[in-house]
Design goal:
Blueprint: E1 8-12, E2 15-19, E3 32-37, E4 40-44, H1 51-61, E5 65-71, H2 82-89, E6 93-95, E7 120-121, E8 127-130, E9 133-139, E10 148-152, E11 155-159, H3 177-188, E12 194-197, H4 206-230, H5 235-242, H6 251-267, E13 271-274, E14 277-280
Parallel strand pairs: 4-5, 5-6, 6-7, 11-12
Antiparallel strand pairs: 1-2, 2-3, 3-4, 8-9, 9-10, 10-11, 13-14
Protein name: MBL fold metallo-hydrolase
InterPro entries: LACTB2_WH, Metallo-B-lactamas, RibonucZ/Hydroxyglut_hydro, Sec-metab_biosynth-thioest, WH-like_DNA-bd_sf
Domain Metallo-beta-lactamase: 30-199
Length: 287
C-alpha cells in the first residue's frame, strides 16, 4: 500500500480511491473510498464520519456530477460519511439495506451504523448508470446480512466480503458462515478481472484468491471439528488451540469466527452444545 491519506489516487481509467485516515487491526491502513466514473461519478464506501475525509471526497468529485453514494454495508468504517457527503453534494445514498444490530457483548471490529438511511436500496442484480455504463449490485451476505459488492465492467468492488490483506471477520449473530461460503461460491462463478476491496491492495487473481479463501475456511472448519471431536471445549479453549500466537487484539474476532463455524456445524448436526461447551458428534465435515 503506497497511497497517501486523503489524496485522490487514480488506479486505472475511471477508478480512483481516497484512503481514509482510520488505520487499525481491522481496517489495515484504513478504509478505501472509491470514486468511479469520469464525466459523472459514484462514491463507493464513503467511510467514517471524519471531516477531513469528507472534505477530501468533495474535492475528489470536484465539478463532476455525483450520481450516487454507495455503501457495501453499514459498519462504522464504511457508511457514516454517507449522510454528510449527501448533504454537501445533494447526491442520493444508494446501496445496501439499513441494518443496526449488535452482538451479545463487545465486537472486535467496527460496530453498526444505526444512522444509515438510504434513499434507495439496491437488490441483487439492480444497477445504476455511471457514464452510461451499469454499476450493478451483487448480493454477498456473510460478513453482514446486508453486504453488497458492486460490479463495474470487469471490476468488482468487494467491500469487506473479500479483502486484499486478510480474511473477513464473520461475527454472529449477523455474520453467517454458511452465507459467507455461499457468497464466495457465487463469486467463483463470475468472470471478474480484478477486485477492489475496501481494505488492502487490489486482488488481481480473483478466481484463485476466492478458492484460497474458501479452502482456508474449510480447513478451519475441519480443525475445529477435530478439536471438539477429541474432547468437549468452550470457545476460548478452541481459540487457544486453533490460533497459537494470536495477536491479543484479534482474540475477540477469532472467537466470533469460531462461533460462526460452530453454529454452521450445529445446523448440520456435526456438533452439539451444552451451555458454553461444544462437543463433536463424530461425523465428518463438508468435503
Amino acid at each position: 500500500m503506497s497511497a497517501q491519506y486523503e489524496a485522490l489516487e487514480e488506479l486505472e481509467p475511471g477508478i480512483a480511491r481516497v484512503l481514509a485516515h482510520n488505520p487499525s487491526a481491522f481496517t489495515y491502513y484504513g478504509t478505501q473510498t472509491y470514486v468511479v466514473g469520469s464525466r459523472e461519478v459514484a462514491v463507493i464506501d464513503p467511510g467514517p464520519d471524519n471531516p477531513e475525509h469528507i472534505d477530501s471526497l468533495v474535492e475528489a468529485v470536484g465539478p463532476r456530477k455525483l450520481v450516487a453514494i454507495l455503501c457495501t454495508h453499514t459498519h462504522r468504517d464504511h457508511s457514516p460519511a454517507a449522510a454528510p457527503l449527501a448533504e454537501r453534494t445533494g447526491a442520493p445514498v444508494i446501496g445496501c439495506a439499513p441494518l443496526a444490530l449488535e452482538t451479545v457483548g463487545p465486537r472486535a471490529d467496527a460496530s453498526f451504523d444505526g444512522d444509515y438511511s438510504p434513499d434507495r436500496v439496491l437488490g441483487d442484480g439492480e444497477s445504476i448508470s455511471i457514464d452510461g455504463r451499469p454499476l450493478t449490485a451483487v448480493s454477498t451476505p456473510g460478513h453482514t446480512s446486508n453486504h453488497l459488492c458492486f460490479a463495474y465492467g470487469d471490476a468488482l468492488f468487494t467491500g469487506d466480503h473479500v479483502m486484499g490483506w486478510s480474511t473477513t471477520v464473520v461475527f454472529p449473530p449477523d455474520g453467517d458462515m454458511a452465507a459467507y461460503m455461499a457468497s464466495l461460491h457465487k463469486l467463483r462463478k463470475r468472470n471478474d478481472r480484478i477486485y477492489f476491496p475496501a481494505h488492502g491492495p487490489p486482488v488481481t487473481n480473483p478466481q484463485q484468491y476466492v478458492r484460497h479463501l474458501a479452502g482456508h475456511r474449510m480447513q478451519r472448519e475441519r480443525q475445529i471439528l477435530k478439536l471438539v471431536n477429541h474432547r468437549p471445549l468452550d470457545i476460548p479453549e478452541i481459540v487457544a488451540s486453533a490460533y497459537p500466537g494470536l495477536d491479543p487484539r484479534l482474540t475477540t474476532a477469532a472467537g466470533g469466527s469460531v462461533y460462526a463455524h460452530l453454529l454452521d456445524l450445529e445446523r448440520r448436526r456435526l456438533v452439539s452444545r451444552s451451555g458454553d461447551i461444544w462437543t463433536g458428534t463424530g461425523s465428518a465435515s463438508r468435503s
